[in-house]
Structure formats: structure tokens, C-alpha cells
Amino acid sequence: MKAEAPAADASVSPAVLRPLREADVEPIARWYGTAEVLAGSLAPLSDLPNSIGPRQTLVLTDGANQEPVGLILVASDDPEPDWATVNLLAIARPEERDVAALGVALLEASLHQEARHIRAAVPADVGLALYFWLRLGYRPVVSGERMWMTRQLDP
User: Fold this and answer.
1) SS3 track for 64-100
2) What is the pLDDT of residues 61-116, one digit of tens each?
3) Which of 155, 111, 114, 132 is CA-nearest to residue 39?
């Protein structure tokens, strides 16, 4: 999967979302432990390259230098058919929130054929993550002791 958002300068896209490559692990390791988590929680970095079945590990880059600035873990048909769940959205620095928003838009576009609904697990400390998802048009839903941000995808 490689998707690019439209750019004002057609030569450089402001965001690219693509599958994780082995070469991405080292640059991600430099910031992963201090990442800003906007969905889910950090798993051991060694687990990320192991995308199996409907689970995908995607890298978000700023489009200019292709250096990884974020990660998205998404599972299709979770919790049921026609749903996708963002289990992790982590960015290197808070300044990357705009790139993260573009990454979510790219993810939604790529899921168009597979899912009608998407949800993201809000981190336990909530914080700015709630506002990030609200700004993108997601609505909060509380299930048990967990808060999810959900959205219906356009047909």
C-alpha cells in the first residue's frame, strides 16, 4: 500500500503511507520509545514487522525525505466484518500531528473497499489524542472501560 495526499507542490507529497520495511526499523527505533501515542499503546518494536493476516503495520513519512515519522497498526474485520481498528498510531514528535492527520485520511481512503467503519483505541491517558480524533470527525464511544473513536467511512 502506498498512498499519497495531494500537495501544493506536485513534486513533494506532504505524507506517504506504506507498509513497514526492514530498513525502517532502525530509524523508528530512534524515536519509538518517546513517541507521542494518538491511538492504542506501544507494543515491543520487535513485534511490528510481523504483519500477519488482516493486521498491517504501516509507516507514515512526511513525503519530503521518506524518513519514518509515524506508525499505524491497523486490523481489518476487527471487531467484526466491515470494520477496521487502528490499534496504534504513534508519531515521532508532537509537530507531526498534521502529517498524522493526513496519514489517517490516506488510511481511510485505502480501506474504502474493505471497511465501512473505522475505530481507534484512545490511549489510557486520553490527553490530546481525544482532540486529535475529534478534529478528524470521529465520535467517542465508550465500551467497557475503553474509549474508542469511531467513524463511518464514505461509500
Assistant:
1) CCCCEEEEEEEEECCCCCCEEEEEEEEECCHHHHHHH
2) 987 778 899 999 999 999 899 999 999 999 999 999 999 999 999 999 999 888 99
3) 132
Q: Which residues of 12-30 are buried (b: 16+ CB within 10 A; e: fewer)?
A: ebbbbbbebeeebbebbee
pLDDT of residue 11: 47
Q: What's the confidence (pLDDT) of residue 86?
A: 95
Please provide the CATH number assigned to the domain covering 3-152. Answer: 3.40.630.30
For the chain, give the number of residues. Answer: 155
Please compute the mean of the pLDDT values over residues 6-29 and round it to a whole number.
76
**Pair type for strands 117-121 and 83-91:** parallel
State pLDDT tens for residues 32-46.
999 999 999 898 888
Under 8 Å between Cβ of 25 and 48: yes
Task: Label residue 33 left, alpha or beta by phi (over 0 means left) and psi (-120 to 50 means alpha).
Answer: alpha
Cell triple for residue 109?
Answer: 481512503
DSSP 9: S
User: Grid cell 475505530 — which residue?
Assistant: 119
List phi, psi (to 5°) of 134: -60, -40
